[in-house]
Amino acid sequence: MSETPVAIDSILDLCRNQYCRIAIRTLAEEQRSMTIDELSNAIFTDIHQTPITEASEAVLTEIRTALYHIHLPKLAAKGHVTYDAERQLVEPTEQVIQAHSTLSTFLAGDSPTGIAD
């Protein structure tokens, strides 16, 4: 495990958007590579508290597009994820896991239970 402290200002900047906050939490909790579709589905389910089968394609496309063009490139630029846009694959780094741990109180606001995981 890296001992480099997480730059809180950097993470707080990234956490301004709900999709990004949920992506950070999901990747930190899963601690595995995820496709953009898997991450989009997790974000939809988290926000709407309904099964993914009830998602409209338009909403899922909006989430995927925002992840692909905005949030994942920002997370990758800060070293929080490894992002392969061509393969549409995202992998959390130790930095995002540390950031989630550090900011679990802030991220808990988006948790369905309101309690930090």
Structure summary, number of beta strands: 3
- How much helix, percentage-wise, in residues? 55-70%
Query: How do the strands of the widest beta sheet line up side by side?
Result: 1-3-2
pLDDT averaged residue by residue: 84
Q: Which word captures the global form?
A: globular
CATH topology type: Arc Repressor Mutant, subunit A
How do the helices and strands follow one another from N- to C-terminus? HHEHHEEHH
Distance between the termini: 20 Å
Task: Characterize the biggest β-sheet.
Answer: 3 strands, antiparallel
CATH class label: Mainly Alpha
Total count of domains: 1
**Helix and strand composition category:** mainly alpha
Gross CATH architecture: Orthogonal Bundle
Low-confidence stretches: 113-117
Any idea what the radius of gyration is?
13 Å
Figure out the total of helices: 6
Q: Beta-strand percentage?
A: 5-15%
